[in-house]
C-alpha cells in the first residue's frame, strides 16, 4: 500500500511562487530588499513543490514493514519490529484542529499529515494496523 501527496499541493505551491513574483513586480519597483524577499519566498515554494513532484509517495507499507520519507527525498525502511508505536496525534489550537500520523521507531518519530498522505491519518492508521497484524 502507498500513500502519496495530493496532486493539488505542488500545483498550489507553484502558483504561490508565481504569485509572489507577480506581487514583487507590482510592488517592489527599485526596492532590493523586497526583491530579495520575493526571490527567497518564491524559491522556497518552488523547491517545496519540487519535493512533492520528485517524492510523491511519503509512506508505503506491506506485511514486512513500512518505508517512510525522511529529509528532502531519502527513504528509510522500517521492519514492523522496529516500529515501537503508531498513533494519531490530535491537537486543537486557536480553534483549528490538526491530526498527524505518528510512527515512532525508537530513534526517530515520523509525522505525516492528511495532505502528505492523501487520506485521513485515522484511516491510514487503521490500514497499517491491519497490515501489521
Name the poorly predicted regions. none
- Helix/sheet category: alpha+beta
User: What is the CA-atom radius of gyration, in angstroms?
Assistant: 18 Å
Characterize the overall form.
elongated
Helix residue percentage:
40-55%
In this structure, how is the largest beta sheet organized? 4 strands, antiparallel
Proportion in β-strands: 25-35%
Number of domains: 2
Q: For the record, give the distance between the C-alpha atoms at the N and C termini, rounded to a whole number.
A: 15 Å
Count of DSSP H/I helices: 4
How are the strands of the biggest sheet laid out side by side?
1-2-3-4
- Average pLDDT score: 93
H-E string:
EHHEEEEEEHH
According to DSSP, the number of beta strands is: 7
In short:
This protein folds into two domains: 2-54; 57-132. Helices cover 44% and strands 32% of the residues.
Written account of the structure:
By secondary structure, this protein is α+β, with helices and mostly antiparallel strands. The chain has two domains: 2-54; 57-132. The protein has helices at residues 8-27, 32-54, 114-117, 121-132, and strands spanning 2-4, 57-61, 65-70, 74-79, 85-93, 96-104, 109-113. The strands form two sheets. It has a four-stranded antiparallel beta sheet. A three-stranded antiparallel beta sheet has the order 5-6-7. Strand 3 (65-70) and strand 4 form a beta hairpin. Helix 1 (8-27) packs antiparallel against helix 2 (32-54). The longest helix has 23 residues, at 32-54. The model has no long low-confidence stretch (mean pLDDT 93).
Amino acid at each position: 500500500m502507498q500513500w502519496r501527496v495530493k496532486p493539488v499541493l505542488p500545483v498550489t505551491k507553484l502558483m504561490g511562487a508565481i504569485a509572489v513574483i507577480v506581487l514583487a513586480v507590482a510592488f517592489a519597483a527599485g526596492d532590493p530588499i523586497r526583491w530579495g524577499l520575493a526571490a527567497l519566498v518564491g524559491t522556497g515554494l518552488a523547491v517545496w513543490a519540487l519535493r512533492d513532484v520528485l517524492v510523491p509517495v511519503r509512506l508505503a507499507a506491506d506485511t514486512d514493514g513500512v518505508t517512510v520519507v525522511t529529509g528532502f527525498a531519502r527513504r528509510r525502511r522500517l521492519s514492523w519490529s522496529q516500529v515501537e508505536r503508531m498513533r494519531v496525534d490530535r491537537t486543537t489550537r486557536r480553534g483549528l484542529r490538526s491530526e498527524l500520523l505518528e510512527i515512532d521507531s525508537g530513534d526517530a518519530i515520523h509525522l505525516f499529515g492528511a495532505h502528505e498522505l492523501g487520506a485521513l491519518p485515522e484511516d491510514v492508521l487503521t490500514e497499517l494496523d491491519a497490515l501489521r497484524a
